[in-house]
Amino acid sequence: MRSVRLRLGLPEPYVHPMHAFVADTPGFRETRLRHWNPAVGEQNTLIFFVDGDDRAAYTDALADQPSILEYEVAPVEGQRGFHLAVTEDQRSADARLTTAFLGTGVVVVSPVVYRADRSVDVSLVGTSEELTTALEGVPSEISLDIERVRPYDGRLSDPTATLTPRQRTALDVAVELGYYANPRETTLEAVADELGCAPGTAAEHLRKAEATVLRRIVDAAPGARA
After folding, report:
1. DSSP class per residue in 21-64
2. CB-side exposure of 124: number of CA atoms within 13 Å?
3. Residue 114 φ/ψ, nearest 5 degrees
4. pLDDT tens, position by position, 50-68
5. Does 195 map to a domain?
């Protein structure tokens, strides 16, 4: 089983109007499709994160789209951007693109990233044969760049997968005690006491765990690096 990261260059009419809105409007950076109904039909429910500053402008544009049936927007506490749940009639252009991945056996791994240059980053998982079939089914007018191919190891779905048991325990204890809270609610010495080790040993476990998790998140996330 292999993982492939793609960048799709979308010509009109494949660019969704709300993707174009984000690309063309100052203060908006990208949109991430995080969850969706895998049973693609005439209507679909999707959950996005929109990295943008003007929620009202976005919802005004959303309300003007005839394909949008329902939507709900929720702010993200303490950071820029907002969550969006939307139910939409599937556009014919979207159907032509998603058809390439249906019935091939591949799995689309979230998030799907809609970039400000109107391209889309997608990660797929499947056998070599399934991935080849899916890529061959992408409409010819869409440019396709294969950015990375590697054996699938679950790094995006579970970035803690390769932690040692001791590193995972140290991370769990630190989170539970509030070591990573803002403001911090405990000390390294308290984490070490809970682990039954010296503070220097606890710090080493946490440093290694942090480095592993952050490296895997940054390395695996679509759109993380140009």
Report:
1. HHHHSTTEEEEEEEEE-SS--SEEEEEEEEEES-HHHHHHHHHT
2. 26
3. -95, 110
4. 999 999 999 999 999 999 9
5. yes
Mean pLDDT, residues 28-34 taken together: 93
Let me know: does 126 contact 44? Beta carbons within 8 Å. Answer: no
**DSSP letter (8 states) at residue 69:** E
Q: Could you tell me if 121 and 177 lie in one domain?
A: no
The verdict on pTM exceeding 0.85 is: no
112-131 residue pLDDT tens: 999 999 999 999 999 999 99
CA distance linking residue 169 with residue 151, whole number of Å: 27
Please check whether residue 195 is in contact with residue 170, taking contact to mean a CB–CB distance below 8 angstroms: yes
Q: Which residues pair with 114 in a beta bridge?
A: 31, 120
Same domain, residue pair 100 and 171: no
